């Protein structure tokens, strides 16, 4: 797709939060022609969610600030307007103008979405940045997102993520058989090959599912984020590093 044709279809937005975390937008033409732009942003993160959610909220505020109020932003955390995993369709349909998310959540729509968050044994944060900005990654992202009328931009990076929290000790691959683990993206596919049962859940639902026993393990980000999520209260073992997201 030619760049000029693409930008005609999709608007631009910038964010502060992960290349694991992406911002996507799709402005209708009439909105861009108006004196004031009204912009609805939806998110996969809960309200005041540590790190990822607070960055999304800060980004929404900054858009208004740097535009001197010309862009009027209304931000909705997960569940406030649509469910976390409904964010993509809300923007692609034109009901909202941007989402803040991790694009591997949309792997079911096209496997290529996973590559714009992280893949097992893939790129580190600096390598991901180099690929996106200097080695054709953004052009591939544009081609994929353009099929859905979107424009996606990187919004930071979580760095190397930990292996995860488990309710039982893992000493061999055999210990993974039948394990119900929250792990999205291609990392979940790897765990399935090892015999685990991967589950995809929004971040805000992980703790309650660990406590109830609906899942027996989870991956998230790293010590700072994980401490805020209080996973240490719900599980016994923490393993590191993770192979699934070396630069999300």
Q: Tally the structural domains.
A: 2
In the predicted model, the low-confidence regions spanning at least 5 consecutive residues are 1-20
CATH class of the largest domain: Alpha Beta
Largest sheet, spatial ordering of strands: 3-2-4-1-5
Profile the largest sheet. 5 strands, mixed
Derived structural class: alpha/beta
Strand residues, percent: 15-25%
Estimated radius of gyration: 18 Å
Q: Your description of this structure?
A:
This protein has helices at 3-9, 29-33, 52-66, 87-92, 125-134, 137-146, 185-193, 206-212, 223-229, and strands at 18-25, 37-43, 71-76, 98-101, 151-156, 164-166, 180-182, 197-199, 217-218, 237-239. Helix 3 (52-66) links the parallel strand 2 and strand 3. The protein is built from nine helices and ten strands. The chain folds into two domains: 3-156, D-Maltodextrin-Binding Protein, domain 2; 164-239, D-Maltodextrin-Binding Protein, domain 2 (3-Layer(aba) Sandwich). The radius of gyration is 18 Å and the shape is globular. With 248 residues, it is an alpha/beta fold. The two termini are 26 Å apart. It is 31% helix and 18% strand. Mean pLDDT is 89; it is low at 1-20. Strands 3-2-4-1-5 form a five-stranded mixed β-sheet, with helices on both faces. A five-stranded mixed β-sheet has the order 8-7-9-6-10.
Give the SSE map:
Layout: H1 3-9, E1 18-25, H2 29-33, E2 37-43, H3 52-66, E3 71-76, H4 87-92, E4 98-101, H5 125-134, H6 137-146, E5 151-156, E6 164-166, E7 180-182, H7 185-193, E8 197-199, H8 206-212, E9 217-218, H9 223-229, E10 237-239
Parallel strand pairs: 2-3, 2-4, 7-8, 7-9
Antiparallel strand pairs: 1-4, 1-5, 6-9, 6-10
